[in-house]
């Protein structure tokens, strides 16, 4: 069994203070190492040859929801029974912790902490690989949730950029034939009307509607490619919202939805393209109205963040919220749950807001959803 430095360390830790004059240099070095392990922002666990847990630091205890004093020196099989079986990757973690290891190995798991899904990367290393005499296994646990989210964001941006390039090239080629198709269909429609062919005229109307839909889709594609004519200048947020409010209200009335707008705090201006900013608020409000369906409330509120760097517009609906499993997906291009949706609304909004140094966040539950648009405050 590992008559380990760690046992020495724990004893030393318990009995002596670091500044004790009786501490010899080796012991104080070990003591320092123990303190480092306990404070490091990576989870560390050490199993001995008989697979007993002989060290677990603060971060590892926190990540796995284990109390150090209750699990220390217990066999790993016993410790596993203290872990929550409800965890999404419980079985994968168990087989990883209990398998014997010849070489370094890694496992990434989804792990719920404080009600949120996190991603933990666990690296297991046999101690002989660390060139120490004792036999056992070290586990390093890193919370890679943010890194994975950033990687996904980069992938998403790359997809958007590619779509944008293709769109910019193809839009012209698609729009020209559409214009002539529409023109000829309209002519045929008039003729059919003249000779009283109502049914056939109805078909023409459907074809014209579909052509308009394609046109709309092409325009959405185009706004994903970086538009050349972005016009950045100081824009009064209240003015932008005031101008689109009639459009939002007329859509809301159709579905028996009330719209409430707070008076914005002060005369806040942000540097943005006015038309693009309108598009952002319209898209988010439209989503809110669609989420409510029939009868409900759409609220537009304003606030500042604590550090006063951002002016925030909160758009809240009383819809049924966004399920946890979809929250990561809704900003992906083409993700939609609507029969006639393009799934481009939110990615376009996100791109527009990111380009002016802001961000879009959301809070959601069965009571509804709030999208918060963070706009960098220019204090103009
Ligand atoms: N306020 C909301 N409440 C509930 N779900 C929402 C809300 N906003 C967005 N979503 C979800 O996110 C998905 C993506 O939204 P996005 O605006 O990108 O596309 P869309 O609304 O489906 O299509 P389009 O914007 O082209 O009409 C929606 O299909 C819906 O499932
Ligand atoms: Mg939408």
From TrEMBL:
Cited SUPFAM superfamilies: ATPase domain of HSP90 chaperone/DNA topoisomerase II/histidine kinase, Homodimeric domain of signal transducing histidine kinase, PYP-like sensor domain (PAS domain)
GO molecular function, one term: ATP binding
Alphabetized Pfam families for the sequence: HATPase_c, HisKA, PAS_8
E.C. no: 2.7.13.3
UniProt cross-references to InterPro entries, sorted A to Z: HATPase_C_sf, HATPase_dom, His_kinase_dom, HisK_dim/P_dom, HisK_dim/P_sf, PAS, PAS-like_dom_sf, Sig_transdc_His_kin-like_C
Domain Histidine kinase: 169-379
Domain of life: Bacteria
Chain spans, region Disordered: 1-22
Keyword annotations: ATP-binding, Kinase, Nucleotide-binding, Phosphoprotein, Transferase, Two-component regulatory system
Protein's recorded name: histidine kinase
Reactions mediated catalytically: ATP + protein L-histidine = ADP + protein N-phospho-L-histidine
């Amino acid at each position: 069994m590992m008559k380990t430095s760690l046992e020495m360390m724990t004893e030393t830790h318990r009995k002596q203070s670091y500044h004790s004059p009786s501490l010899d240099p080796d012991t104080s070095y070990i003591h320092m190492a123990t303190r480092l392990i306990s404070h490091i922002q990576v989870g560390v666990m050490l199993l001995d040859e008989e697979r007993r847990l002989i060290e677990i630091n603060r971060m590892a205890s926190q990540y796995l929801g284990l109390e150090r004093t209750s699990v220390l020196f217990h066999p790993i099989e016993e410790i596993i029974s203290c872990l929550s079986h409800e965890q999404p990757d419980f079985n994968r973690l168990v087989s990883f912790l209990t398998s014997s290891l010849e070489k370094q190995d890694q496992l990434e798991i989804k792990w719920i902490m404080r009600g949120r899904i996190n991603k933990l990367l666990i690296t297991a290393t046999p101690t002989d690989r660390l060139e120490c005499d004792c036999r056992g296994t070290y586990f390093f646990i890193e919370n890679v949730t943010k890194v994975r989210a950033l990687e996904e964001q980069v992938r998403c941006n790359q997809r958007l950029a590619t779509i944008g390039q293709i769109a910019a090239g193809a839009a012209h080629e698609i729009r020209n034939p559409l214009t002539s198709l529409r023109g000829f269909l309209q002519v045929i429609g008039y003729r059919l009307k003249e000779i009283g062919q109502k049914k056939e005229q109805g078909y023409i109307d459907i074809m014209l509607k579909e052509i308009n839909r394609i046109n709309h889709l092409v325009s959405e594609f185009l706004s994903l490619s970086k538009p050349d004519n972005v016009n950045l200048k100081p824009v009064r947020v209240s003015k932008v919202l005031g101008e689109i409010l009639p459009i939002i209200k007329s859509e809301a009335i159709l579905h028996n939805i009330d719209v409430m707008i707070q008076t914005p705090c002060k005369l806040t201006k942000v540097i943005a393209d006015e038309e693009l900013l309108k598009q952002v608020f319209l898209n988010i409000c439209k989503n809110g109205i669609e989420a409510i369906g029939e009868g409900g409330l759409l609220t537009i509120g304003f606030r500042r963040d604590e550090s006063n760097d951002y002016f925030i517009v909160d758009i809240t609906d009383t819809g049924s919220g966004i399920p946890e499993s979809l929250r990561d997906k809704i900003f992906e291009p083409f993700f939609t749950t609507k029969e006639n949706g393009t799934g481009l609304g939110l990615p376009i909004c996100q791109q527009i807001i990111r380009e002016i140094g802001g961000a879009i966040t959301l809070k959601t539950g069965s009571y509804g959803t709030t999208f918060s648009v963070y706009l960098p405050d220019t204090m103009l």
